[in-house]
Amino acid sequence: MWIIQEKSPADLELKVLLKDQWRLPKRYIYGLSKQQNVLLDGHYHHLKTLVRKGTMVSLKFTGQEFRSLQYYLPDSSQRLEILFENRDLVVINKPAGIKSHPNQAQELGTVMNYLSAQLGQAYMVHRLDQETSGAMLVAKNPVVVPVLNQLIAQGAIKRRYLAIVHGHFTQTQGFFDQPIGLNPQNPNLRAINGLQAQSARSYYRVLDQNTAYSLVYLTLETGRTHQLRVHLQASGHPIVGDPLYGQDQAKHLLLHGLQQKLVLPFSFTTETIVAPPPAYFTTYFPNLNQLNLTELLYQSGHKD
Questions:
Q1: How many angstroms separate the CA atoms of 144 and 163, rounded?
Q2: Which SUPFAM superfamilies does the entry mention (predicted)?
Q3: Span 125-166, pLDDT tens digits
Q4: DSSP assigned state of 289
Q5: Does domain 81-142 have CATH number 3.40.50.800?
Q6: Are 161 and 176 in contact (CB under 8 A)?
Q7: Which CATH class is domain 152-299?
Q8: CATH 3.30.70.580 domain residues, the chain
Q9: pTM, to two decimals
Q10: Are 237 and 214 in contact (CB under 8 A)?
């Protein structure tokens, strides 16, 4: 059983609080009400009840609601760096070279396996490509998975990246908005205007450059597979070390999940989590460790 307890932020009808404020799926809300597992200051009340500000709202989930979620075998062979943690979620600094999740039930050695051992259980919210490092959001309990998925879909959770790419841009900032679909020659890859193409939009800003490379800050406005890698390759500036969309033989893909701006479930306060880039980024920009990247982003016209 999972129990969520939070105080009501305002005078609201209970159904409005659960659906519009806390963004719980309808199936959760009606299931909780049917089983009388919605309590106000310890007592059951129907969904049309007016909840006064400061009332303690308790939600009791039996576990039947989450049978469709995937569970992962625990693997304690590696511990991952946790950048932020609360009751409902963690943000980790994912190392490059580790898969986000297993593709087969008995597979080990992925982020979700490690966190299942480290936290007791872990639930997938979004993924990073195996070659990509950086901030990755993972749920600690199944209740918040659909809430976080909805926040991501609505653009309330911002994912920001740092990349080192080939060449120089003619403009220091802008958008890529070409649709992305399946590569007709290889369904494991993506292509601009490929098969079953979907809209895709990415923001970029050049933070620094040297003779051969540019240091670029990127924000996803949609979340297509390989979106940043495809958009940058199509712009003529493939990411250094990209084994799928680039030509060079660099050891690492220089794409890093730099920041996540989170809207925390239930309290809906915000947290901005920064994941320090790997040391190998300094091979191309030696002064990177001396830069205050968060301050630099705002000074250079940081975009939410």
A1: 30
A2: Pseudouridine synthase
A3: 989 999 999 999 999 999 999 899 988 888 889 999 999 999
A4: G
A5: no
A6: no
A7: alpha beta
A8: 81-142
A9: 0.87
A10: yes
